[in-house]
Structure prediction request, 975 residues.
Amino acid sequence: MSGTDNSTPATPATPASDERPLLEVRDLEVSFSTAAGEVKAVKGISFSVYPGQTVAIVGESGSGKSTSAHAVISLLPGTGKVTGGQILFDGKDITHGSTKDFVDLRGRKIGLVPQDPMSNLNPVWRIGYQIKEALRANGISSTRAERNALTSGLVANELNSDDDLYMSSAAKKALLAELRTARAGADDVDAVVQRADDALHVGSTTRRRARAVLTEAGLPDAEARTNALVKGASTDDRVAGLLAEAGLKDAERRARQYPHEYSGGMRQRALIAMGLAARPRLLIADEPTSALDVTVQRTILDHLEELTSELGTAVLFITHDLGLAAERAEHLIVMYQGKVVESGPARQILEAPKHPYTRRLVASAPSLTSRRIQSARAAGIETDEVLASHLDEVVKDDIIVAENLTKVFRLPGQRPGSHTDFTAVDDVSFTLPRGTTLALVGESGSGKSTAANMVLSLLEPTSGKIVFDGVDLSTLDKKAMFRFRRRVQPIFQNPYGSLDPMFSIFRSIEEPLRIHKVGDKRSREKRVRELLDMVSLPQATMRRFPNELSGGQRQRIAIARALALEPEVIVCDEAVSALDVLVQAQILTLLNDLQAELGLSYLFITHDLAVVRQIADRVCVMKQGKIVEQSTTDEVFDNPQQEYTRELLAAIPGASLEIGTGAPPVV
Amino acid sequence: MAWYVARRVLQLIPVFLGATLLIYSLVFLLPGDPIQALGGERGLSPAVADQLRAHYNLDKPFIVQYLLYLKGLFSFDLGVSFSGREVSDIIAQAFPTTLELAVMALIIEAVLGIGVGLIAGLRKGGIFDATFLVVSLLVIAVPIFVIGFVAQFVFGVKLGWFPTTVGSDVSVYTLMLPALVLGSVSFAYVMRLTRTTVAENLSADYVRTATAKGLGRRRVINVHVLRNSLIPVVTFLGVDLGALMGGAIVTEGIFNVPGIGNALYHAIKAQDSPSVVSIVTVLVIVFLLANLLVDLLYAVLDPRIRYA
Prediction:
């Protein structure tokens, strides 16, 4: 369905004030030239961002949201170019600016925080060097905080007295030493110095702030001492300051490290520091946290919000997550197939979505308020009956029992021959009753995938055992193991990586049948057709290849392949994490229908609690290899026992919002 | 970092022993009797032949011969060739010429290959790119002796820019033509490799991020594209340096360069096994050192390697 014909271009509904917009996009069109001719990716969109405002563009992959954002700073990939419309920045037309215009604009006026923290830092340069480049290229002084137009009014008298000079690392050391001498003898001297140490950031704390901190710490004559010592920072100090501002601990040392020594969250912080280094007036944040764990995601977004509101930076936020957008932005723009289908204040769109696409998006946005998906067949039956029949299944036997599972990995140490032990899974026990869904939830590194791999018998437990249908897996011989593999099938996270690109869809689905010598050629083909029907794909799909299919279609193929051998248990390792919300909802519904139809048991591995609520009967929350909480889904959501579980729940984007209350359910 | 270097150096030891043993046994297994060949048409009396065999240790079992040879090697005694010259003398005379030729060829292929590859990669699909793709394909496809003879004929005989052969007059000028011929094939590989990695890195996310920071195009290319692209190219150049030092038998033959390749060729023809073994051993050591150099350079260029 296109549904875009009668949509009106988005008009700024809530200007922050009556000033002119910082960024104004009018009827923007972007095309890519391909072998098949021009393909329009953005078809005449309009929106405005006012100074200091946060605007979010929401849409699924391929909706043109990133393309629009990249067009603004002329970073369109490959053959992409602006073929129509206008882009105005601060009243100036930059639609067809020269390379030099954009070099001046980028960094200094418009900053970018890119999507994937893993690939957006150059692996061969130190983090500090890469941030320093941003300062140097834009001619940013590292000695003092340059206030921008919005905040300079507030601190105008500060500027006269050099109060915005940054603190250097030498000044910090000297001041802390002075503080220690001055307070020598007091019982709490260590605590006081430590507090001051934590509050003062080299290259970020200004003289004014330093004075306040030191006065509070009880340094006599703090004003004269800070004035004498705080005289601006070196570029290296400023780089450390920027990293500290982005929330990185121990920034001075971190600045000297390489990207591969950083975790994903730390890299994203470094990228935020980079994007804000030259104090741009507009920051384009392109899915800045979608590659990160929910809890990390929340702290980083909180920090970004704090930082940009403090600096008065306007933010253009690109995301596929409606809940996230609603939580972070005042104004939403919903894009679908290259057009803006709806725009307005965030709350208004959530509560009363007008366009059918937005309504679908709102309806399928997973959130705390969403309920377990009911199977399509059961949809016609009364809710009570569904619940009753579902409970009946629960009392059946346990198909998988994990007892005291432990997995210790031996990691090579710094020196030859040395090693350290890393306990990935630590004394974990759980049961999967037949015909139900058990979710293992946790952040990356919590050991949930390791546990799943042991259930699949792809990894051998260091201790503990897995009992499948009454039989201990470790007692199986080669033949029995082969039969076991037939009964337990996996679906993996990345549908782009889990299908062999050289295999046709038919061959991919047929392969397990062939390996297990099921039927002859004709019956296998019949089975493949059946399976494609089961996952709601046309039978003609079997002649195609993975690269011709979308992510959602590929995941359906992966499901069909897993179902081919009529397994009893399916282990879904982040099976929907890589998919857009609408597709995610479709796949979850499909999995649920198949469970009702075939009596499958699912072991669902995910980091996304919102997904858990939609599919799981029981939940195990994992942290650092241990299960910290284990209960029914409703119990975990309504009455979480552990602090960690509450943290995870609070981190779900849009958790605080009531989504879709005013919308008729459209699925 | 220190451990990384130490490990690389330690790895040289088994490779060195394996390579020398292999070379020694291959020469040992060669058909024909070198002592008889020494005598020429008239043949040697059995007494003289036995004496010669004892002198060259040829009457001892294979493994003893190998160990004696290793012992000599570690005391820098490479033995005496059948013609009575110290093998170390032969190498000392030929090696500097080969080194000069190899370094010249390496500089030519590196400068031209990286330069042309960079431009071609930046303008992928353009006329410049297409032209040099065809040129490099041609150079790779045509055997080196054809390139050598054609170059000798055109630049040496017809145009007279360079001397046709080198002979005993070794200088940068006389070695220019053989160096060009020698470097031409590797130039094609270096150019293609650079072109591909540059084109690939141009669309890397971190290059876009660098642009978004406000860096100018020149800086983005020099700092972010080129360094990353050079990592595989440096590997190739290092291995190639080792190969070039091994003496280009064909090129040295065409231009009559008194280098190690020539010396080796004559030694093989004369079945002069002490010379062959010693020269090849030296070449193996040179090759191993060149590879060590690559590994170290690699670690300098790519910080991720240092801790691996």
Observations:
- The interface with chain B takes residues 73, 75, 77-78, 99, 103-108, 111-112, 114-116, 119-126, 130, 133-134, 137-138, 258, 260, 271, 274-275, 277-278, 414-416 of chain A (CB under 8 Å).
- Residues 143-233 of chain A form one domain.
- The mean pLDDT of chain A is 81.
